[in-house]
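Read as amino acids, tokens; as here:

___
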Amino acid sequence: MKNQDMLNNQLAEERTLLAAERTFSAWLRTALAAMAGGLAILRLISFKTELHKTIAHIIGETLILWGCLVIILSSIDYKEIRNKLMLAKNYKSSQLGFLIIVMPLLLISALLVWVTLP
């Protein structure tokens, strides 16, 4: 019975880690969609009046900056959960894989903000 309890605990911790990864992935998709929407508003839609251009610029920049913030905050949250699970059990999770996902997204986000700012 003791082995079964240990196995159940291990499976629960693995499910927690997988749930954290799915949540992190969902937040990244949300951030990318927001930034793509902001870029579309800024660059692809033409407006007739200066007021409309100003409003579109504010909305587009807000979406892009919000997307950047979501990437940063979701990365921090995921890393904290992952580290807690790593300390609880000796899980091996790829730090390199995490960096390969997050660093290019942050670089692209920063470039997108730099390019779209007036």
Remarks:
- The radius of gyration is 20 Å.
- Residues 2-44 form the longest helix (43 residues).
- The mean pLDDT is 85.
